[in-house]
Amino acid sequence: MTGRRLGSLTRVGLGLVLGAAAVAASTYQAPAGAQSFPTSTDVETYRDTVETVFMEDRGGTTGGMASCVMCHTWQTSVRFSLETPETLDGWTSEQSRSNFDVIGQLINTADPESSRLLQKPLAQDAGGLPHTGGTFWTSTDDPEYGRLLQWIQRLPDDQFIPAPEPEIDFAFFRACVQDVFANPRDGQLPCTRCHSGGMIGFAPAPGRGDRWSDEEAQRAFQLISRVITPGNAEQSRFLLKPLHPDGGGAYTHNGPRRWESRSDPEWQMLAGWVRGERSGSSCS
Q: pTM for the complete prediction?
């Protein structure tokens, strides 16, 4: 693998990742009916072009400074969930083949510039999307952005085209989802205690009285879009973070675990909303 070797700070963080991975093994499964694409040459090109970016030492552990690999391996359940590197220098060829399939969910070969792989690390004022990991590229002129864009453009045009995402209903959010935020389970803090401001402020307490204004609800609805994957409840952070790890939830959450398993009726209700199956004002 080419590219700059990990710096000492990233090695420390990655060392923790590798150590924890001995306990939390990867759950990735390759899709059934795999086609001849990608070939071994395709995978090697991907390893040299893309995975070196994931391993790049960015000088820290905070937003915009942490290597992709420090957040997107065993400790995440979102779409961008890579194999844990076999060594401090990166992945084996077999692991890279699995990673290639994962990255296929984040790119659009019919419209490369719309690929989430490119939009998430890109500054929002340059056309990017909100990214918990911060901004890596301030503009599309960044050489690293251009390198990944060219890689996507060279793939077959029809190879990776995302399915249309369902529309998430605002009326149901207003009538049913926001009530979840304000009503904690026994002995727990309400979501509004921690998620009331900033980029994670999708659950603010009502400004006046016990109901949200239209403006408050609209802002919360916009912010919650950062933590849901329309059509895929199982990979939406909104539903993974408060779910107990034994029930398939995320490894980390600073707040309480609201649901023990996905069979919880409330989790099922919210999952139906994320999948685009629930709309209107009926919560039952």
A: 0.67
